[in-house]
């Protein structure tokens, strides 16, 4: 049986399959369906310094092989997180990672400091790519100078593994990846959702209350795969790939393109057990190809 | 019971009228304590435009045969494909989801109000309520006579009252035009499921009559178990997920202008 473990900086993952922030709640919502500890790691719902109500309903539109969302980082803020959510997620033995959001550099720093105090949080994913908030969010991830600045400042106050989550809504994602790597990011995760829009022809109105939202699901997979490949060529730090992964084959494609690990997002909605099936599928693939380790396929695209 | 994702066997698919189907499903695990008002989320096969699962109220439960039924009205490609499913085929279902209606007390008098396919959760509710010694009345609203379904089945559990928008059956008008919703009947509780304008009208009447009232909402959802945060509704305590914190809400907790 192949060794599925991979490393993301200091993080040891028992397998390359993690969950994407915002699609896995705080993990506990999946306890009825799967053994959460069987995953390589879980990314909790995006957290902010202060409570956020999120955007108005409708926040979701179904599209061809995907969906748009405009949730807008609804969460109860870091105080609530530390008091009520952290004690619950501390029970997991797998890597628990907090997705960190801010509308200003100061907010990112303060939130990171608070998370840094939590022993059982293995890493943070610095979200500079949320397309659904008015201030901050994607603004940090679509400009090289801003991406550099927020990474540099957060790096100063965080000594565990720092993953930076990149936005695909840019002209050259590899440049942004190189910029955050230069400022001390230990890993980059990509892609967040693509900015999209849905219109109801009958009512002649936008479907989402925010007009635009983030597209996810199998519809974005080829573009995400291309971006992961481009970024993997450009940086030395481990890349975490995501974007429409719904099967083990999808996950393997991302790893061949250069991802050291993957995150599963929207597929969790369709099949709450898909992550476990993907792990099993990767294991079968490695065995079938007589490979000893999951690391043997990372970046092994044959040209 | 614990939430499950599994393939359920279709025991029956009965066409009730021009656009409604009653699909009876059998799981391999034992059904236990399904609350009236809970729902299931179904992955529709062979419908490229139906990417996400579709939620359906649990219409009725037969613990003896270990089956439950859903009521499907054909509105789009997903429900159309679902309506074509045949006996012995399987459906990929996540269930049971959400919170049900609060249980009435023995001796109380309740009115179940269903509009269109919103009558779906009321059969299980009527059955369970009658079982515990509650006086059940059922008010069903539809556009026209041919849209009224399952009237005889409902009548096993209580007196059925009907309205139609066009006056072809029962009282001519909306459910709130029916005398059963007037002050003289003195119901302890209203339970309502149907189109939004109807639920708002019922909520308004309930408030005027000072009658306890619960409504079952159906916002668009992606997951059905509280992680996508897409199906929220505004409540006195902020946004709440219809899937996990509903779909049943007391009208006093909702920020409805009533």
Characterise the protein shown here:
The complex is a heterodimer of chains A (about 300) and B (about 260). Chain A has one domain: Aldolase class I (TIM Barrel). Chain A is about 30% helix and about 20% strand. Chain A is built from nine helices and 16 strands. In chain A, helix 4 runs parallel beside helix 5 and helix 7 crosses helix 9. The radius of gyration of chain B is 17 Å and the shape is globular. Chain B has five helices and 15 strands. Chain B has a seven-stranded mixed beta sheet, sandwiched between helices. A six-stranded antiparallel beta barrel of chain B has the order 1-2-5-4-3-6. A two-stranded antiparallel sheet of chain B has the order 13-14. Chain B folds into two domains: about 90 residues, Translation factors (Elongation Factor Tu (Ef-tu), domain 3, Beta Barrel), CATH 2.40.30; about 110 residues, Nucleotide-binding domain of ferredoxin-NADP reductase (FNR) module (Rossmann fold, 3-Layer(aba) Sandwich), CATH 3.40.50.80. By secondary structure, chain B is an alpha/beta fold. Classes of the chains: A alpha/beta (about 300), B alpha/beta (about 260). The interface between A and B is medium-sized, with 33 and 31 residues.
Secondary structure elements and pairings:
The complex is a heterodimer of chains A (303) and B (258).
Chain A (H helix, E strand, L loop, with lengths): L5 E3 L2 E3 L3 E3 L21 E3 L16 E4 L2 E4 L7 H13 L5 E6 L4 H12 L4 E7 L10 H4 L2 H14 L3 E5 L7 H10 L4 E4 L3 E4 L1 E2 L4 E2 L5 E5 L4 H14 L4 E3 L6 H9 L2 E6 L2 H4 L3 H15 L15
Parallel strand pairs in A: 3-16, 4-7, 7-8, 8-9, 9-10, 10-15, 15-16
Antiparallel strand pairs in A: 1-2, 5-6, 6-14, 11-14, 12-13
Helix pairs in contact in A: 2-4, 4-5, 5-6, 7-9
Chain B lengths: L3 E12 L4 E7 L12 E5 L10 E9 L4 E7 L3 H7 L6 E8 L11 E7 L6 H10 L3 E8 L8 H5 L3 E6 L6 E2 L16 E5 L2 H14 L2 E5 L15 E4 L2 E4 H4 L2 E3 L8
Parallel strand pairs in B: 7-8, 7-11, 8-9, 9-10, 11-12
Antiparallel strand pairs in B: 1-2, 1-6, 2-5, 3-4, 3-6, 4-5, 12-15, 13-14
């Amino acid at each position: 049986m192949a060794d599925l473990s991979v490393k993301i900086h200091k993080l040891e993952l028992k397998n390359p399959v993690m969950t994407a922030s915002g699609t896995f709640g705080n993990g506990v919502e999946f306890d009825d369906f799967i053994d959460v500890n069987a995953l390589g790691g879980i990314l909790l719902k995006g957290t902010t310094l202060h409570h956020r109500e999120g955007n108005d309903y409708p926040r979701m539109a179904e599209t061809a092989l995907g969906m748009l969302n405009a949730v807008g980082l609804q969460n109860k803020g870091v105080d609530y997180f530390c008091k009520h959510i952290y004690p619950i997620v501390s029970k997991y033995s797998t890597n628990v990672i907090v997705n960190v959001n801010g509308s200003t550099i100061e907010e990112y720093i303060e939130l990171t400091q608070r998370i840094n105090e939590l022993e059982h949080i293995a890493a943070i994913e610095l979200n500079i790519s949320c397309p659904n908030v008015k201030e901050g969010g994607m603004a940090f991830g679509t400009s090289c100078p801003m991406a550099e600045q927020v990474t540099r400042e957060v790096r100063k106050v965080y000594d565990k593994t720092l993953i930076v989550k990149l936005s695909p809504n840019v002209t050259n994602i590899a440049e942004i990846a190189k910029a955050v790597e230069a400022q001390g990011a230990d890993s980059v995760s990509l892609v967040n959702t693509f900015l999209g829009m849905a219109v109801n022809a009958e009512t002649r109105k936008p479907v989402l209350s925010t007009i635009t939202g983030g597209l996810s699901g199998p519809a974005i997979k080829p573009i995400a795969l291309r971006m992961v490949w481009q970024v993997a060529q450009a940086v030395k730090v481990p890349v975490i790939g995501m974007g429409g992964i719904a099967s083990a084959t999808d996950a393997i494609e991302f790893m061949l393109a250069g991802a050291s690990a993957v995150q599963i997002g929207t597929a969790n909605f369709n099949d709450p057990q898909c992550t476990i099936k993907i792990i099993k599928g990767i294991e079968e693939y490695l065995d079938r190809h007589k490979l000893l380790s999951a690391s043997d396929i990372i970046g092994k695209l044959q040209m | 019971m614990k939430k499950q994702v599994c393939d359920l066997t279709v025991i029956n698919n009965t066409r009730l009228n021009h656009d409604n189907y009653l699909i009876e499903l059998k799981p391999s695990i034992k059904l236990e304590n399904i609350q009236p008002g809970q729902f299931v989320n179904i992955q529709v096969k062979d419908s490229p435009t139906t990417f996400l699962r579709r939620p359906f109220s649990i219409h009725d439960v037969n613990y003896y045969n270990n089956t439950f039924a859903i009521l499907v009205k054909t509105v789009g490609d997903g429900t159309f494909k679902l309506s074509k499913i045949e006996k012995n085929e399987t459906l990929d279902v996540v269930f049971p989801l959400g919170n049900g209606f609060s249980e009435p007390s023995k001796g109380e008098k309740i009115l179940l109000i269903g509009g269109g396919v919103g009558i779906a959760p009321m059969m299980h509710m009527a059955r369970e309520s009658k079982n515990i010694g509650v006086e059940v009345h059922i008010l069903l609203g539809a556009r026209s006579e041919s849209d009224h379904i399952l009237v005889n089945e409902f009548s096993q559990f209580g007196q059925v009252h009907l309205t139609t928008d066009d006056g072809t059956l029962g009282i001519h008008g909306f459910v709130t035009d029916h005398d059963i919703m007037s002050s003289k009947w003195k119901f302890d509780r209203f339970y309502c499921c149907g189109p939004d304008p109807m639920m708002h009208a019922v909520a308004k009447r309930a408030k005027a009559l000072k009658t306890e009232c619960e409504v079952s909402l159906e916002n668009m959802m992606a997951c059905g178990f509280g992680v996508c945060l897409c199906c929220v509704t505004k409540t006195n305590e902020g946004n709440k997920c219809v899937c996990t914190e509903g779909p049943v809400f007391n009208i006093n907790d909702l920020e409805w202008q009533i």
